[in-house]
Design a protein that fits this description.
Number of helices: 16
Distance between the termini: 8 Å
Structural class: mainly alpha
Strand content: under 5%
Largest sheet: none
Shape: globular
CATH architecture: Orthogonal Bundle
Number of strands: 0
Order of helices and strands: HHHHHHHHHHHHHHHH
Helix content: over 70%
Radius of gyration: 23 Å
Length: 349
């Protein structure tokens, strides 16, 4: 009998990587590390970047992107995309402003705006999951539809007579810190989305759909229902971000947040979420949003024009998408063609 026959059968744990490697040697942790490096470089080289007022305005600027990026992460992991989020922000802003101008309290108007956002997300979900249309085509269409509704409802005017309490609250800070109060809302949302994605059966279904929708369906995952729920969540959270956006600037306009969807998608992909689906993590996305925000803020303080900032953001987006394919190619070259043979079964030479 050979030595192989005397060994105990090897288990999955024998082939798995140590926990520290699975936590630290990931794209998400690489983005976190890059975020720390960029922040330190900016703090040392850009005047007033590390000042508390700069941190406050940086977080105020990225708060809406951070919120919208959470459901967008889950949608892209399933292999879909939602380009209508910024238009839903504008639509919810108009709903909030119009209802408040008609005499409805901010609380009630905000609730209606969130419901409208959820309905808008349900429209996307219906066409994608029931009708069977591709999400890219559907959300490009609803991007124009929702923006047209927003501009049509309010025209070129703006509603600015919001209660001072709410506008001050949107810009307030946690006492004794430069951190805006809206970050409390974001942290609650981030924890909720992280638990759903990484610690529930629903989250495992999301990853399974992204890897193979057919395999997920045969495994018992309701693919259509899962995607529909995600698009409804995207619409509701985008509307919530629209309420914050409106109160922060004190103005409800149909063109609010135009182009914001590009910043959201760029941050999500930069944060390690695969555009092909099946891969991603909430902490990487948060780091991606903050990285883009820090770069933009530092470059503005350095008197760099917005065009150059957009070029850098676009280059980061392209690099994040291309790097996934490059890493996969390098992994295949390292492993070699074909499937590696496992160890011989006990009793075999």
């Amino acid at each position: 009998m050979t030595d192989t026959a005397q060994r105990a059968p090897r288990t999955y744990k024998d082939f798995g990587q140590p926990l520290w490697r699975r936590i630290l040697l990931t794209r998400e942790m690489a983005i976190v590390g890059l975020l720390v490096i960029v922040y330190l470089v900016a703090a040392l080289s850009v005047r007033n970047f590390a000042a508390p007022i700069t941190i406050t305005y940086l977080l105020l600027d990225v708060a809406a992107i951070l919120m919208i990026a959470l459901p967008m992460t889950l949608i892209i992991i399933t292999g879909e995309i939602d380009l209508s989020v910024a238009s839903i922000v504008g639509l919810s802003s108009v709903v909030l402003g119009t209802l408040h101008q008609a005499g409805l309290p901010i609380e009630a108007a905000g609730l209606v705006a969130i419901v409208v956002g959820a309905i808008a997300g349900a429209v996307n979900g219906f066409f994608i999951t029931v009708v069977g249309l591709p999400s890219l085509a559907v959300t490009i269409g609803t991007l124009a539809l929702f923006r047209g509704l927003a501009v049509g409802l309010l025209g070129t005017t703006a509603v600015t007579d919001f209660t001072e309490f709410w506008t001050d609250l949107a810009k307030s800070k946690i006492p004794g810190t430069p951190i805006p109060s809206v970050m409390i809302l974001f942290v609650v949302l981030a924890i909720a989305f992280a638990i759903v994605l990484h610690f529930t059966a629903f989250g495992r279904g999301i990853f399974a759909i992204g890897l193979s929708s057919e395999a997920a369906r045969f495994s018992g995952v309701n693919v259509e229902r899962t995607k529909f729920i995600l698009f409804v969540l995207s619409g509701a959270v985008s509307a919530l971000a629209g309420i914050y956006y409106t109160l922060r600037f004190g103005s409800a306009r149909g063109d609010n947040a135009t182009g914001l969807e590009l910043s959201v998608i760029a941050a999500v992909l930069l944060g390690g979420v695969s555009i092909f689906g099946g891969r991603g993590a909430i902490h990487g996305v948060i780091a991606g949003v903050l990285l883009i925000g820090i770069l933009s803020s530092a470059l503005r303080l350095a008197n760099v024009t917005s065009d150059v900032i957009n070029i850098i953001t676009g280059a980061l987006l392209v690099a994040s998408v291309v790097s996934t394919s490059i890493l996969a190619w390098a992994r295949r070259r390292r492993v070699g063609p074909g499937v590696k043979k496992g160890p011989p079964a006990p009793g075999q030479d």
